[in-house]
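>> Question from a student workshop board

For tomorrow's exercise we were told to take the sequence and the ligand below, predict the bound structure, and bring the output to class. My setup keeps failing. Could a helper post the expected result so I can at least see what it should look like? The ligand is NAI.
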Amino acid sequence: MLGARAPRWALPARRALNWARPQPARVPPCGRRLGSSAGRSLAAAGLQPQLDKFGAVTVHLAQLHAPDSLDQVTFQRWLQESVKQWRAEGRIAVWLHIPILQSKFIATAALQGFTFHHAESDSSTLTLWLGEGHSRLPGYATHQLGVAGAALDVDTGKVLVVQDKNKTTNAWKFPGGLSDPGEDIGNTAVREVFEETGIKSEFKSLLSVRQQHRHPGAFGISDMYIICRLQPSSFNISFCQQECLRCEWMDLEELAKTKDTTPITSSVAKLLLYGYREGFDKIDITMREFPAVYTGLFYKLYHRELPDTYENMTEL
Ligand SMILES: NC(=O)C1=CN([C@@H]2O[C@H](COP(=O)(O)OP(=O)(O)OC[C@H]3O[C@@H](n4cnc5c(N)ncnc54)[C@H](O)[C@@H]3O)[C@@H](O)[C@H]2O)C=CC1
Ligand SMILES: [Mg+2]
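>> Workshop helper replied:
Here is what the output should look like for this input. Compare the format with yours to find the bug.
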């Protein structure tokens, strides 16, 4: 049974004035005016809605001590009364995080107007906009990222290319694949090239960025495809039999001229050939690392090289 203990929200009414700060703060006691056991029992069962700095309420059902004891009728009543109260208090939105094993509450929330924001492997996040006009909540991921590596052996002028086993047309392309969550662009290129061809390499620069909307391979969202310049440090090919049909070191000029390739690979082969002949500084988008405003975090900034006179410009 839920609600066996005294409710945590039973605070003096004047405390409610302090809920907006500091952030994040627990939201006012929604069970207070329910006149039923729903709000009290949910609070006693561990649920502690929080206010964020934008004025939205966040609810984590994972906080429930014994989620299996919560029935849909109690949750439905709690959510309905809570939303009514949050709306009256001027909250702008509700974020509702539901662990996969409590997914029965998704339907309950959806019937009250909640929609999916995103899902991860073990939980889903739903939202309800309470503010004026259309929702101003940020959406979830809009793109996936694919990265390929153009590994050029500068001693021979040969570049590493593969033909995909799973494609109907066997066009030459640079080995690559999808970035893992939290993975640097250059690291994806180096990892994918090694996994697909057995060739070890080092990241040098970005060469191109392609954006494609409604990509079938990205489940209908947009796809970013970046090609990096890599410097190979091993040369014996041992390619992945599951993904590749062929893999070879091809003369870069031949790749730039062949019709047996994609427009992207052909364009980047010509760009790489230009850099190989005239200097990579003509084509490279290089990377620098800086500390982020978020303590302890760093970011990578990719841009064309700047002359020192511009790079070191400071106010006198
Ligand atoms: N222009 C070009 O030359 C090409 C660019 N790309 C870009 O490369 C990136 C993806 O590279 P990939 O090599 O395809 O990825 P990847 O190397 O990360 O993974 C490919 C593997 O996933 C498997 N796979 C893909 N979809 C699957 C599904 N629905 N069910 C089961 N298995 C599935 C494939 O069989 C393959 O083994 C994307 O950004 C894409 O736009 C991909 C092909 C050609
Ligand atoms: Mg691949």
